[in-house]
Design goal:
Blueprint: H1 11-24, E1 36-37, H2 42-46, E2 53-54, E3 58-63, H3 73-83, E4 89-93, H4 100-105, E5 113-117, H5 121-131, E6 139-144, H6 149-162, E7 165-170, E8 187-194, E9 208-216, E10 222-227
Parallel strand pairs: 3-7, 3-8, 4-5, 4-6, 6-7
Antiparallel strand pairs: 1-2, 8-9, 9-10
Amino acid sequence: MPPPRSSDPPAPAKNVLAELRRLTEPAVEARTTDSVLPFGAGTLDRALPGGGLALGALHQIHEGGPRGRYAASAVLFAGGILARLDGPVLWCLHSRDLFAPALARVGLHPDRVVYCETWRDTEVLPAMEEGLRHRGLAGVVGELTRMALTPSRRLQLAAEGSGVTALVLHRVCAGETVEPEPSAARTRWRVSPAPSGSGGDRHMGRPRWRLDLQRCRGGAPGSWIVEACDAQGRLAVPTVLADRQAAPERPALRRAGGR
């Protein structure tokens, strides 16, 4: 006969929850949902209600560019945000390609990250919701293929209840286009690589991203070219592009024969 079923979570999940309790025990107060995290980039902050990214809320970040499935712009954008918040981070993985040294380059030290190996969307969502109940966390990240409206509402309510910020990362395969689904997230971003400036003789300049704010509750969409997060997780607007939004993105050219 098969062994009796247990309602307890599997051992790996138990270990993650135990680690979260240990790390967040000293925290006694939740962050207020009225607080924001400014990016420090004038035109970008002015486009956001309150002058920054709302904390204690759900935000979606989509990877853009021709190699979206394998690029890391969205991951580094999320890492830079969390680097400037206090406390550990719960990161719910969808695959084993997260490169911890890259997170350290944008200010999020690997010692701050608790990794939860959740390989399917159906595992990521409940793990995120559980993590958002721990008030001492800086944030909870979930790598998802898709997110429907009802799960997004649950995550938004959990983030509001604890004051912990939730970030959902979406990556798609090269050439694949996924229409954004209705969501309760406060903001929806698209992060794509952009040509970097010259850093001088035989030196590359600081990497640049194209940030598209596709949706913002209480704010207006917009696009900006920014310099990627530095070692403190901070963005910068190139001097030559200050107070100018990005030009409209050109449609991709097709080869002869419809390919």
